[in-house]
Amino acid sequence: MESTGNEIHKLLSRGNFKQASQLVGKLSGQYPSASYPKVLAQYVKFRQNKQKYDYLSGLEPLIKAKSPPSDARTLSLLHTFLLELGRFDEVLNVYGAAMQKYPNFETGSNWFVRAIEDMNLRHMAQSSFQLRRLSNDPRALQFWNAMATVALTKIHGKSLSGRERELNATLSFKAISSLAPFQSDQETIVFCHVCEQFDNKSREIVDVLLPTFLKGGKDFSVDLYLKNFLIKHLEILNDHENLFKCCKLLTEYLDDFEILCHLVKSAKALDIPKEEVREHLKVRDSRNHRLAHLELDVIYSQSISNEALHFYLERYHDKPCCVPDLSFYRERIPEGLIESGMKQFSGSLIHECNAIKLSQVTDPELFLELFKKHKHTLREKPKTDYSPCSCFILKIVESLINDKNLNLSNVMTSVLILESYQNEDPHNFDTRIWLVVLYNYLGCPTIAYNHYKELHVKNLQNDTLDHILAARFSTLLPLKDHPFAEQLSGGDRVYESMASLPQFIRISFERKSYSKILGMLELNDKLNRSSTRWSKIGEQLQHTRLFNDKRSELLAKLHESWRLLCLYNVNASGTNCVESLRLSDNRDFAVLGSLRDSCTTVTGYMNQDDKAILAGCLREMMLELFSMGERDPIVDKILALGNFTNSMTATEEWAFETIRLLYEHSPDQDQAYLAEQIEAMPKLGSQGWLLTHDYNCQLATLKTLDNLKRIKNQQCKKLVKAKLRDLRDSCQDVFQRYIAEISSCKPNTELLKTLGYADFEHQIARGVLTVLKSSCNL
């Protein structure tokens, strides 16, 4: 049966429905009473004609039979089937029904694992509850169930009613409390999590943890999770006496700023003299302990004194930590005190950088002088280190390319400054990031890529940093066989590796490593709903349209990922259908530094919100559905939710609305409405990334419309061809005009000379020419 089933699935993937139907008929004859052939027969009918398949008369009677399917193979097929039908709230109910009729550990275990894979925390809790009575280790399963319930409350709490939340918490607390005394720190961590589901169980947490912490001793070791629980709940209980004792003890083992802050706060509540607390803080001379003197002033005096600030600056005025530390306390530090405090110490390079950042000076002349003063350090530092001199360089660049001063000459000058500086400081991350940004802004993505690859972005960094290069790449980088394609596939492996994350979560349950589970579940959710991931999916599909490449594999990947995204959102919301889709924005814009807020025009190419990113995927699905003459109820529902165009360019909005018009109107209707939309095609941007983007976005849209056989209206067909011809005819002129503008533009040679840099021949025009050649051949 298994080999025949596999053969049928292969036939379905190749679209050979007739042979698949014949094989499933033979299988049904061989096993007339088995569930698997019956469900597989329905699945073949569904795949043969999804639009006409009747779930109510076809699959539902099999699921709701007196003896529902219960073997692992059939349940797995039902899961796939229901997922493709879009019945997301039902995909795991078949496991629950099987367990109710034929309870056994294997089915329950499969149910639990499927729940983890689907990120269905409600079913994780239900399946682990059922497994308790079938397991050889019911104690462990009690903790599994409690941890699953905690995850449901903390991660998908909005899906629960107040009554459900209260009932789950009460049952978990009763079950776990009965297992005391706990046999490990991991069991105690679960107990603390369970208690946190209530508003009034802080005392129970403290009663379990406090005796161990107060005992201390030579063999005492600190579990950081338990330490956090204890401090948090002692504070909730206002038990300042024990909080002070615990914090005092913990300072002997840990150099932890949070502990020191709680030590100071509890001391204040106990009316312990400030000087006595200061002596406690001197138990160790570290960054955290010196910084705690500032916290001491804030708690006892509501303002930071010159003495406390001097004590901190004495050691850390020329350390990288100085800026974030003092920025945290800026509102509590009297005006001018930081500036006067910094002047008391020597002007080393890092000291000067810290002083600039803390003073928020904007005078470019000062940055010039400081750079010239410290430029010699670039020759003296180890080659693989990167220099704080980049601080001064980026401040100078910011003065040139901020939204008020932005022009082509200033951007060109900034590129020359950054390129010259990068030659002296080749491993500097901050300046190279801005070379990537500026080259992309200018429409030179191939040069931007050469810099981006030097950043050696890998693993999870792909999810947080790739947007700097990958945003709108299908239209900004119209090159088919560029190495960036390999870079993208490398980034995609991060998301492909997610398939193993549920396995690690399962192993954590089996090995009783409960403290890691919440974090892994949250990571799994963030990566599945990652905005960078979904942006790449839409961009890759548009890229294939631009080159008339095969799309079947990418479309299959889109559909599979889309179903899972819908599934995760349904599970998170607790609804029985897709009401909205939320992405997880993991993009790290902090790498742009202070320029992020003042230079928004040059970073505009990466400005895409969740709806615009989802629209890129909807666009590709609508095109596929239109070409097949089909509609998708989930796509229809998502389209009806609201405006997708807030962060789109004018051309992106035009392309999306054009394809939406196609999809929402039957091809049998008069398509004159489409001609009006095509006529409204926006003018091309005149320079930079917007020129390249507009041209290739319009080209991809018109080429797609020209290839769609279901567009019957002759006026539309002629108009598309005319627009396509005019666009292609304009390619040389619009790009050469921009290249001529670049060639005639002069950088600020005086500024370059002041910095000690020569006015060398830049590669900007050549970078645009590379894009021109590719675009004109499409």
Automatic annotation (TrEMBL):
Q: Which InterPro entries match?
A: NAA25_NatB_aux_su
Q: Give one Pfam family, short name only.
A: NatB_MDM20
Superkingdom of origin = Eukaryota
Tell me where the transmembrane regions lie. none
Q: Name one GO cellular component term.
A: NatB complex
- Similarity comment text for this entry: Belongs to the MDM20/NAA25 family.
PANTHER family in the cross-refs = N-ALPHA-ACETYLTRANSFERASE 25, NATB AUXILIARY SUBUNIT (PTHR22767:SF3), N-TERMINAL ACETYLTRANSFERASE-RELATED (PTHR22767)
Q: What is this protein called?
A: LAQU0S06e02498g1_1
Q: What is the source species?
A: Lachancea quebecensis
